[in-house]
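Z., the sequence and structure:
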Amino acid sequence: MRRSYTRLVLKQIGTKRSDVLFFLMMAMTASAQQPKPTGDHAGFVPIISGGAGYVHNVSGGIPTLEPQINPVLLVPFGRHVLLESRTDFTGFFEREHLTDGPFKGKVFKTVEFVQVEWLANTHFIVVMGKYLLPFGIYNERLQPIWIKNLQDAPITAAVGTRTSGAGDGFQLRGVVVQRPRYTIQYSTYFSARSNINQLQAARTAGGDVSIFLPAPRLEIGTSYQRFLQGQQINSAATYVSWQPRHIPMDLKAEFDGSYYGKGYWLESAYNLTALPVPALIRKAQFVGRIQHFSPTHGGGNSLPRVNNERVDFGLNYYVRDDLRFISSYGRAFSSQGNTNIWNVGLTYRFLFPLWPARRQQR
């Protein structure tokens, strides 16, 4: 169980391929088939993971420097309880006169989530605390710096994630049914309104459901949210994630809509690992994204107030699995003016236990 539990923890702090619940189900199923350990084992050891990075951004000719580190703490309490949190430290520095002068700025700290999870079984997981809102595919799964292929979030990322991208309250999630050909997963939540420092959240309720097909490695899902404070509105999303089995490609798409507007984004990433090229070149990854947003009722609430379109192209290079150089160019189009956006930098993924593993006496 402990070896499988560690696998679950690693997947839970950042995966590109499917919802963490699918891996939880696999881990718990595997653990039921394993005999009790009789030799060395790690035990339930707390883990520090996360990522660090540096991004040099130039948007509309204005440069900014954005160093950041996002540590993730995971503390297991036996086989069924897990404490998990992620904190974001991001520096934002720009020139004193925007295009010239010395760089000035500050470092911002944000507790992105801090939650306790009770893993009753694969069908029923209770989450309490501050958690990421499970709306669409980006906010909960693609946001960390070490996971996303392009460092700028989609235009529609603000749909369904007001006001902080997180909720304060409880969440239920799990696997509805598992068959050899498909797995259906769900999550549902209620968040209370909070203005407490680092625990800000809006009063919302919603849920997400998706089906994962392991043979084609295809996931299709939908999300719904009801915003329950101020002007109460509905938000909805439909998304697709596909990693072909024999092609090193990652394709994701999402359509989002709310009272304030609707839009979509489509992103594809292709690794050169399968091409007959020198090993040095096979570490490269090409990325492309197109997106569109149309405001309704004047837009606003972190969404554009005029029609927006954007095209991005990226080139990432993996020095190792945990270290990569990133670069991208984007062009944004709107009636307020067109803008060029450049990003260049690096990201690093780290993982280590808080103390050494215990040795079990024979």
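The helical segments are 2-12, 20-33, 138-141. The first strand starts at residue 47 and ends at 59.

Let me know what you think.
H.
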